[in-house]
Write a structure and sequence with these properties.
The complex is a heterodimer. By secondary structure, chain A is an alpha/beta fold. In chain A, 48% of the residues lie in helices and 7% in strands. In chain A, helix 8 (131-143) crosses helix 17 (338-346). Chain B folds into 2 domains: 1-203 and 349-396, Uridine Diphospho-n-acetylenolpyruvylglucosamine Reductase, domain 3 (2-Layer Sandwich), CATH 3.30.465.10; 207-344, Vanillyl-alcohol Oxidase, Chain A, domain 3. Helices cover 31% and strands 22% of the residues of chain B. Chain B starts with a helix and ends with a helix. Classes of the chains: A alpha/beta, B alpha+beta.
Chain lengths: 348, 396
């Protein structure tokens, strides 16, 4: 890693909370060749948000570096950390990190769906924790004329929480479960409302497919790509938008959610840090599960920034962000998923 | 363990041998043959108050342990690089600030951009701040004596301080006026900055224009400006932009244009040209009257040139390649600047021998055991080598 040690990566939200160079991107690069269990723990104090990569003047591929390093730590048995390990065990058992029963995976679905070439992949958080999001996404897609199917008990965790924490083996295992189910169902197009799933299926799955000898010819879309073209309404209120890291910095989707919000007739007010410079909500990369205090502190800062725009309505497009904002905000800020906003225009 | 016990009551301490390595570095590029002169700290302490700092200093004085203060570690002059086994006093936990009756009082570890955001919410703004404002700290930039955004109208940070709170071996005190010169630009060698009262301005919108012009023409266009920087075509092409020299001129009144707005929007994203390979960036300050003459020379020798204008001087940032040959070139640039009445931007570890007698005498009086950032005032192996090489270059 050809780091020039300029320290500009110290914009890192975790570093701003922890204030120790051992968790700063620059610091971690310096110690990356001599990792023990203490340093390994610090390597997981990172939401893999990718802000360090955006500000790095020498364009180091830092997101990739953190993930590779975490894989290395996993191979050296310095990881997973305790809670990540618990989630891993649960997922090997239940195919999701929440311990939800597989037959209840599509319990949120309120209308029948037929077989289709298009799959709505709800993901674990929307299936078991934020069912409002899965319901809203499916309803909005249906009302906007998108035909799709849902695989329910044949949908498995995409593996994102594990791939982001260096556990490639379980990622591969879940990839195979999912791809077989998709092939069996004749799926050609996958729509998801979760940026973690979107990134994993778009970026990691083709790599796994090559490694494991599967063909991967699925068209993968995030719901915002559809809403940006089809949503319309006159909601009229003011709101701000939070860029989820996996959707924005990792996948380059910045304008589609904004277009959708505007098409819904909302007056969009930007936070000071937006698009590629947006502050992470603090939930990703296994941070919220293992280091909750850090995650909450980061989220508090983002909530303050959102409220300083003069609105208390925050729209995001990620279940992790929504969960963290709602839990941390405790009523100070109203948090909506983009699909819920689109639903508001459909059922005023 | 004993050392850890002594310091842990003052806040967070760090003594992991590998992690301590991180505190050996700031942004300074250290040639491999010199790396053995950099020493690993014994411990890193993060004090929370001036009282903690005073107490840590008392312990260090008693046991004759050197102290190296550290802000964000973004300086390229080695100010935070330990040259002796030491206690690193890391100020990141002293990061509070308050805005009271139009006054900004900040602890040493406060980050510039966080203060600017809060000031803006109160209709105020910083007068000057560094281009590394997103990460750099109050204490670090003052200790370096920086110039930056807004220096065209308001000058260096030295001119925008009302008072400083200093801790030295005699205790905690407030210094004002002329006495502040001992602490601004002296890298904590004479006392540790723990708080600063910083002047602010009314948050008038900044309007920016980008003007294609020569450097000479640029100098004549600075009147009434708040901030101005000039980039030559070579520098711009390294940044991936157009191929004409351009002056960014910003003011609190007047009109702006789209390119100006875009350039202003990128003011806090420095060093982008580093992506084109590792570089050395010598920085020198020239009085306005000799700036054109120096520019002609520096333009020939460098791969790109950026000039930030201040009230009565211009800060030249030359982009050079990497390697020993370019290090010599950098020295040549410094020497020419000195010949034209200029000076190196900051002294730090690399140019530590160039302080005046007044400052050196004060150091002997206030820090007779040379415990405050040792090696950063007077000669060290780096400044000695640079001095010798400089002489050789000049003779040649």
């Amino acid at each position: 890693m050809d780091c020039i040690r300029c320290g500009l990566c110290n914009v890192c939200p975790v570093f701003r909370v922890e204030k120790l160079e051992s968790v700063s991107p620059r610091g971690k690069i310096i110690v990356s060749k001599s990792i023990d269990s203490r340093i390994a723990r610090d390597f997981f104090k990172c939401s893999v948000c990718g802000l360090c990569e955006v500000v790095c003047p020498v364009n180091l591929k830092l997101t990739e570096f953190w993930e590779k390093k975490r894989e290395e730590l996993f191979e050296k048995k310095l990881a997973p950390l305790p809670i990540h390990k618990k989630l891993r065990e649960m997922t090997f058992r239940d195919f999701n990190p929440y311990g939800g029963r597989q037959e209840k995976r599509a319990e949120w679905l309120e209308f029948p769906v037929e077989k289709s070439r298009t799959l709505y992949f709800a993901g674990c958080t929307a299936s078991y924790r934020l069912q409002n999001m899965a319901k809203a996404s499916a309803t909005a897609l249906k009302e906007l004329g998108i035909e799709f199917t849902v695989l329910g008990p044949e949908e498995y965790c995409c593996g994102s929480p594990f791939l982001r924490t260096g556990q490639k083996d379980i990622g591969r295992f879940l990839f195979e479960k999912n791809i077989r189910a998709w092939q069996k169902a004749g799926v050609e197009e996958i729509i998801t409302s979760c940026p973690g799933c979107y990134k994993t299926i778009s970026q990691d799955y083709p790599r796994f497919a090559r490694e494991l000898g599967y063909s991967f010819e699925f068209e993968v879309k995030h719901v915002s790509m559809i809403f940006s073209k089809l949503a319309k309404g006159k909601l009229g209120f003011k709101a701000t938008y939070h860029d989820p890291c996996h959707l924005g910095r990792h996948m380059g989707i910045y304008e589609e959610p904004r277009d959708a919000i505007r098409r819904c007739g909302i007056k969009l007010v930007e936070m000071e840090r937006n698009r590629e410079f947006a502050l992470c909500c603090g939930a990703g990369g296994g941070l919220r599960s293992q280091f909750k205090e850090i995650s909450i502190a980061i989220c508090e800062e983002r909530i303050r920034e959102a409220l300083s725009t003069g609105t208390d309505i925050l729209i995001t497009s990620c279940p992790f962000c929504e969960y963290n904002f709602t839990r941390t905000g405790k009523g100070r800020i109203k948090v909506f998923d983009l699909s819920e906003i689109v639903c508001m225009t459909l059922f005023p | 363990m004993l050392v850890k016990d002594s310091f842990s009551r003052f806040g967070t301490v760090e003594d992991h041998p590998e992690v301590l390595k991180i505190y050996c570095y700031d942004f300074t590029l250290i040639p491999r043959i010199f790396s053995r002169f950099i020493k690993r700290p014994i411990i890193v302490v993060q004090p929370r108050s001036a009282e903690d700092v005073a107490e840590i200093m008392r312990i260090c004085e008693r046991h004759e342990i050197p102290i190296v203060p550290r802000g964000a570690g973004t300086s390229a002059y080695g100010g935070a690089t330990p040259l002796k086994s030491c206690v690193v006093m890391d100020f990141k936990r002293m990061c509070n600030f308050e805005i009271r009756d139009g006054e900004l009082v900040a602890q040493s570890g406060a980050v510039w951009i966080e203060m600017e955001r809060e000031l803006n919410r109160n209709g105020e703004a910083l007068r000057v701040y560094p281009t590394s404002a997103n990460v750099s700290t109050v204490g670090g930039w003052i200790a370096q004596g920086g110039y930056g955004i807004g220096s065209l109208r308001y000058g260096s940070i030295a001119e925008n301080l009302k008072w400083l709170e200093i801790v030295d071996f005699e205790g905690i005190r407030i210094v004002k006026g002329e006495e502040m010169r001992y602490y601004v630009g002296t890298f904590g060698c004479l006392g540790i900055i723990t708080r600063a009262c910083i002047k602010t301005r009314k948050n008038e919108p900044i309007n920016c224009r980008a003007v294609h012009c020569s450097f000479e023409e640029a100098i004549s266009m600075l009147e009434g400006g708040y901030h101005a920087s000039f980039k030559n075509s070579k520098y711009l092409s390294l940044e991936g932009f157009g191929a004409k020299d351009v002056l960014l001129i910003c003011s609190e009144k007047g009109d702006g244009d789209e390119t100006g707005k875009m350039m202003w929007g990128r003011r806090l994203i420095p060093l982008r040209i580093a992506s084109k390979g590792k570089r050395i960036f010598p920085e020198v300050i020239l009085p306005h009257e000799n700036a054109v003459k120096f520019y002609e020379y520096a333009e020939r020798i460098s791969e790109g040139l950026e000039v930030v204008f201040a009230k009565d001087c211009a800060v030249f940032i030359a982009a050079l390649g990497n390697g020993y040959r370019n290090m010599l070139k950098a020295l040549k640039i410094v020497k020419i600047a000195e010949k034209l009445g200029g000076r190196v931007y900051a002294r730090g570890m690399l140019f530590s021998s160039s302080y005046g007698k007044d400052i050196s005498d004060y150091k002997k009086r206030i820090d007779p055991k040379n415990l405050l950032n040792p090696g950063k005032m007077g000669w060290n192996v780096f400044s000695m080598s640079i001095g010798l090489l400089g002489k050789l270059i000049w003779t040649a």
